[in-house]
Amino acid sequence: MPASPSADPSPVAGLSVFLIAKNEADRIGAVLAAVRGITDDLVVIDSGSTDDTVAVAERFGARVIHNDWVGFGPQKRFGEEQCRHDWLLNLDADEVPSLELLAEIRALFAPGEPQARFFRFRIKHVYPGDTKPRLWADYHNYVRLYDRRVGRFRDSLVYDEVVTGTQPVGQLHQHALHYSIRSFEHMAEKLRAYSTLTLSEKKKKRRFAAARLPLEFPMQFFKYYVLRRHFSGGSKGFRFSLLYAQAKHNRIKAFLHAPRS
Which stretch of DSSP H or E encloses residue 188? Predict the structure, then answer.
């Protein structure tokens, strides 16, 4: 996972960068190498790594703070509270901001604090073993640059999103790269874990789930392979779409077989 170090070493005044991590020694270094020049407050919230995550983070000058895992939203809210500045840039340990994105953030703050208090930017998916996104790569467009005095992460165990309310949200033009999958085997493990979490948080009607089950696999495969354009990824895109479709199907199947509450 290549880093994209900032060309300008001076930090952006009043900006903290924070990440949550556990056992990310093989990936977090690229993220920290990219962002360490943009902030004088780099924070990593570690939830009990047994690899070299803490050592790698400290090597890049991060303040590493331990906090037992409490769910995605609560963990990020804890991270918000540890930051020294009110303007926050949040990244995951597998999301590397491009040099262009960092330059855009610098330009945004050059005249002072921006008028908008929330900014989205695209996080483009990269397949295992690749160094850049495929043609027409899918992406998430999340609020990850924001003023915590105005909005914070939602207090949800599964979903980590910044609550913006009725405030205007700006859109940055540049992107980060998302190296979310170490391998396709790793992807399958992540999908199984996520399915368990969503089942524990959502309450779906069994009748609706039973009717949806036979259609779930083909619908989800079409969604990922065609609508999200994974056909442009060749054999990796085909495998990616199959795994996602199977995981969505298995989630509903597990719900139907779960004991009634």
Answer: helix 184-201
Percent of the chain scoring above 70 in pLDDT? 90
- Distance of alpha carbon 229 from alpha carbon 223, whole angstroms: 9
Question: In angstroms, how far is CA 36 from the centroid of its own chain?
Answer: 18
Q: At what angle do helices 99-109 and 28-35 cross, to 10 degrees?
A: 40
Q: 224: which DSSP letter?
A: I
* Helix, strand, coil percentages, rounded to 5, for the chain: 40, 20, 40
Cα dist from 69 to 45, 73, 76, whole Å: 10, 10, 10
* Gap between the Cα atoms of 31 and 93, Å rounded: 6
Instruction: Tally Cβ neighbours within 10 Å of residue 154.
Output: 16
Hey, what domains does the chain have and what are their CATH numbers? Answer: 15-178 (3.90.550.10), 184-257 (no CATH)
Confidence of residue 204 (pLDDT cuts 50, 70, 90): very low
Chain centre to alpha carbon of residue 190: 13
Q: What SS3 state is found at 124?
A: strand
Alpha carbon distance 207, 201 (integer Å): 18
pTM assigned to the model:
0.82
Residue 233 scores a pLDDT above 80: yes
Give the per-residue pLDDT at 23: 97
